[in-house]
């Protein structure tokens, strides 16, 4: 309005409180917290890893190599890799299918399906193994029928595979469900309007969008499959050279006071775990670089 007096900017009101306390703390507080976090990591993670390697090499490279090339150790390694080679692809297929159904469709029982997927996270692996013993064991629900047809599940490879499948099947699905929910269905709907088939939509639209999450879930599933102890311990029967995986073989050697050999085999699991961690980190950097 003509003749009006321009208003001067109102100065901000000082409330006496900092708007970002995290950046105004004294430097010694920051370094104290960083130091405490570092001590916890050293005590709980780095120190045990160093001790495993030191104990494994305590009696020299000869004993170390002998422990890894011993027939029972090689059998345990082969069984561990075989179980992972069976369970990881099956859980990958299940995880992709479950994530697709949950995120792309509305149906009754969706909440129940999500709950069942999370079930292995909620119960002890030992309890999971016991469930299969009660179902497929000699005194279980299907035990007499299996014995009649000379089919061995418990204390054999099928039981180990089934127990590992149960323990590891949430990992791929749980990585993909939040990712696919965040992406929505617009791209798939656009592909449908253009006449694309279901398989074409999956391979050309959905899979490229979820590939990094899928690979991340596969890595986690593989790591758990190779390192699983509780459920496998219940269903394996601890038959040396036949149903012992690497974690079970470590336990047997340790109980027999073969400490150097047990730590040597444990170091092999450690190497596999570190390789998995490096691969996971590499995939994370690749995913960030691709988004940038």
UniProtKB/TrEMBL annotation:
Subcellular location: Membrane
Originating organism: Paenibacillus cucumis (ex Kampfer et al. 2016)
Protein's UniProt keywords contain Zinc: no
PROSITE patterns for the chain: ABC_TM1 (PS50928)
Subunit: The complex is composed of two ATP-binding proteins (CysA), two transmembrane proteins (CysT and CysW) and a solute-binding protein (CysP).
Domain ABC transmembrane type-1 as annotated: residue spans: 77-280
Bilayer disposition of the protein: Multi-pass membrane protein
Classification via NCBIfam families: 3a0106s02, permease_CysW
Annotated gene: cysW
Membrane-spanning intervals of the chain: 31-54, 75-102, 122-142, 154-173, 257-279
SUPFAM superfamilies according to UniProt: MetI-like
Function text: Part of the ABC transporter complex CysAWTP (TC 3.A.1.6.1) involved in sulfate/thiosulfate import. Probably responsible for the translocation of the substrate across the membrane.
Gene3D superfamilies the UniProt entry points to: MetI-like (1.10.3720.10)
Protein name (record): Sulfate ABC transporter permease subunit CysW
């Amino acid at each position: 309005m003509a003749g009006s007096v321009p208003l001067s900017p109102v100065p901000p009101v000082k409330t006496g409180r900092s708007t970002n306390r995290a950046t105004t703390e004294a430097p010694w507080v920051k370094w104290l917290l960083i130091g405490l976090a570092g001590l916890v990591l050293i005590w709980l993670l780095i120190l045990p890893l160093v001790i495993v390697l030191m104990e494994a090499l305590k009696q020299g490279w000869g004993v170390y190599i002998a422990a890894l090339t011993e027939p029972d150790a090689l059998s345990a390694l082969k069984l561990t890799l075989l179980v992972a080679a069976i369970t990881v692809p099956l859980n990958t297929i299940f995880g992709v299918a479950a994530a697709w159904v949950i995120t792309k469709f509305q149906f009754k029982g969706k909440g129940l399906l999500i709950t069942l997927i999370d079930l292995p996270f909620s119960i002890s692996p030992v309890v999971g193994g016991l469930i299969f013993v009660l179902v497929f064991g000699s005194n279980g629900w299907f035990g007499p029928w299996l014995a009649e047809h000379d089919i061995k599940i418990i204390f054999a490879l099928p039981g180990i595979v089934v127990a590992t499948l149960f323990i590891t099947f949430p990992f791929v699905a749980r990585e993909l469900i939040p990712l696919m929910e965040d992406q929505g269905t617009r791209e798939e709907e656009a592909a449908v309007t253009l006449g694309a088939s279901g398989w074409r939509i999956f391979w050309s639209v959905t899979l490229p969008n979820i590939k990094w999450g899928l690979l991340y879930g596969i890595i986690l599933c593989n790591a758990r499959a190779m390192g699983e102890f509780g459920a496998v311990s219940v269903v394996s029967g601890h038959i040396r050279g036949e149903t012992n995986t690497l974690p079970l073989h470590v336990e047997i050697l340790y109980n027999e006071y073969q400490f150097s050999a047990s730590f040597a085999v444990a170091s092999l699991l450690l190497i596999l775990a570190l390789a998995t961690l490096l691969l996971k980190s590499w995939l994370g950097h690749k995913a960030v670089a691709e988004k940038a």
